[in-house]
Amino acid sequence: MSTEILIIDDNAEIRLILQEILSDSGYKTRLAANYNQALKEIDKKLPDVAVIDVKLDKSDNDGIELLNHIKNKNRDIPVIIISGHANIEMAIKSLKSGAFEFIQKPFDRDRLVNFINRAVENIKLKNENKSLRSKLFHSFDLVGTSPNVTSIKDLINKLALSDSRIFISGPTGSGKELIARKIHNKSKRNNGPFVILNGALLDIKKYEEELFGEEKNDGSISYGALEKASGGFLLIDEVTEIPLETQSKILRVVIDQKFKRINGNHDINVDVRIVCSTSKDIQKEIKFGNFREDLFHRLNVFNISIDPLNKRVEDIPILTDYFIKEICKNYNRKEFSIDDKNYLMNYNWPGNVRELRNLIERIAILDTDNENEKILEIIKESLSKSNDESFSITENLSYPLREARENFEKEYLTTQLKKFGGNISKTAKFVGMERSALHRKLKILGVKDLN
């Protein structure tokens, strides 16, 4: 697909000159002669690059308004501002607003083409990086045979058929976004957008602007997540971080199915499926007054709860082999194997599935030539840095051998029991003991039944 350049200038001669220069360089062009035409062209289809005259027919800086309009839709699109009335102040204002370059009329042909070529390279590089990240993420599936994951897979298939709101809970890195994306991909809205609004990352002053958008004094519009997600899914991640005042407005949107932009006078109808997620205990947040109970009941039509990785240990070897295959394929690396998975099985995984995925990615990138020693060294080094529940050998050195051994056994078996959800049979099989022998050992060590 050829690169498309949108040329916006009120001077017909300049438009034709620019069109001829860019067409000779192999670019496809679209033209707009004034502010309103430009708005229609931008809203109809975003260009790959825009060349905008700073002064059109609406105001002295309507080119800057169009620049802001484009950036609100996609901040990555390069915009080159041109002007026949250039001054330093105008150039600085353009660049501060996000212009890729500023060029003065009459412009040098070679200099203009150089700017365009650089702008095209810039957007292509950004799109390639996005594509790689998207490919890497979207290629992943929800993998595992644990009862928790099996039940979630079944729920995904059922919920994809409806348009009901969903509330997903689970620790950071456990796969909440992946679950939401899988439902989106299987739903009738799969051709619509999938927009994420992360409550934990927003400036507290910008929640409502990011959610509802804003009609600005200069006439430009900043579109919010609700409009960007129209016809598709809006995932409000870490929804418990949103202030109570904004929560009440979200409740009104859910009830009325419409909203107004900030400073706006007209209602905008909502056509979006809302999915919310949190890594916090939602009932505690409600009890402490941090989250509206009435909003929770509106959002929680269906609930999905995903367990931390250390509670579904049987999924670890399956996930490990799966990530090796997918990551090596995406990075065009030779597949490797991890023969000894004991380190992985015994680790607490505070970062959950994301931490395991990052570990496999690190091994793939470092290119170990499939040498077991190198792989094991990376695993040990990576896990030792963040394992906050590792056994403390140094601490046990101060005890007699028998007591140190008992301490180790108690800590070790307690950890294994937690990982297998208190299941004695699975724990016994993993540690290499008979079920009855493990029961006796736990009783001797004073380890209570976790069930």
Give a structural overview.
The chain has 451 residues and is α/β, with parallel strands linked by helices. The chain has 20 helices and 14 strands. The chain starts with a strand and ends in a 6-residue tail after the last helix. The relative contact order is 0.07. About 2% of the residues have low confidence.
pLDDT < 50 runs, ≥5 residues: 388-398
Q: Looking at CATH, which topology of the largest domain would you report? A: Rossmann fold
Biggest sheet strand order reads: 2-1-3-4-5
CATH class categorisation of the largest domain = Alpha Beta
Number of domains: 4
Number of helical runs?
A: 20
Helix content: 40-55%
Mean pLDDT: 85
Q: What is Rg?
A: 28 Å
- At the fourth level of CATH, the homologous superfamily of the largest domain is P-loop containing nucleotide triphosphate hydrolases
Count the E strands. Answer: 14
Give the CA-CA distance, first to last residue: 60 Å
Query: Which structural category fits the helices and strands?
Result: alpha/beta
Proportion in β-strands: 5-15%
**Backbone shape:** elongated
Largest sheet: 5 strands, parallel
- CATH arch. level architecture of the largest domain: 3-Layer(aba) Sandwich
